[in-house]
Amino acid sequence: MAITVIISLQLLTKLLYYTPITILASIILFVLPGLIDIKEAYNIWKVDKMDFLACIGAFLGVIMSFSKVTISILWPKIEMLGRIQGTDVFCSVRHE
């Protein structure tokens, strides 16, 4: 599997370079549900509860990270800058 990914990256990098990010994101979102294996998580629950907690913790960490990135894209922090007179320095307009 890893060799296939490496070969694909080597051969397809030039083709994917000009592909819009939204298209690449839609490809990832299309493949994402296949990566979640509910039956295996249930088997982990039956075998070892602590491993299941680690599995759930990792899953929640990925969800929270994805949410943080999405929120920062939807509501970026915007700072209005002004030039300090007589210099080439810019600072926040709110700065006193």
TrEMBL record:
Phosphoprotein among the record's keywords?
no
Going by the UniProt record, its keywords in alphabetical order are:
Membrane, Transmembrane, Transmembrane helix
User: Membrane topology per the record?
Assistant: Multi-pass membrane protein
Q: Where do the TM regions start and end? A: 15-36, 56-75
Report any one BP term from Gene Ontology.
transmembrane transport
GO CC list: membrane
The UniProt record lists the SLC26A/SulP transporter domain at 1-56
Q: List localization entries.
A: Membrane
Where mainly found? membrane
Q: What is this protein called?
A: Sulfate transporter 2.1
Please report the organism this UniProt entry assigns to the protein.
Canna indica (Indian-shot)
